[in-house]
Write a structure and sequence with these properties.
alpha+beta, Alpha-Beta Plaits, four-stranded antiparallel beta sheet, 3 helices, 4 strands, 26% strand
């Protein structure tokens, strides 16, 4: 009886680069000022990266003093690159304070 030896997965194995299975629904939390247009700005960015984005799934939460708004968007993640690009677009937006 011989033992089968399998080489270890290479460092470039894409299955080891992400714990996310694609495609999947992926929630992203965005914080910014509670002002007119903020929700629309964030949903517009989401649609650029997920054409099937459903704005009816957006969750809103006011900060304790009511000055800021937390927005949870849920996008269909199709790749690590898409998520990275979406995070970059959100963090670069002038109204956005934090992206989680």
């Amino acid at each position: 009886m011989s033992a089968s030896i399998h080489p270890p997965p290479s460092a470039s194995d894409p299955r080891k680069e992400s714990l996310i299975e694609y495609p999947s629904l992926f929630p992203i939390k965005v914080m910014g000022p509670k002002v007119d247009g903020f929700v629309n700005a964030i949903t517009s960015v989401a649609r650029r990266f997920d054409p099937a984005f459903d704005a009816s799934t957006v969750e809103l939460r006011d900060s304790s003093k009511g000055n800021y708004l937390g927005i949870t968007i849920t996008v269909t993640a199709t790749s690590r690159e898409q998520l990275d690009d979406l995070y970059r677009a959100l963090t670069a937006h002038p109204m956005v304070k934090v992206v989680l």
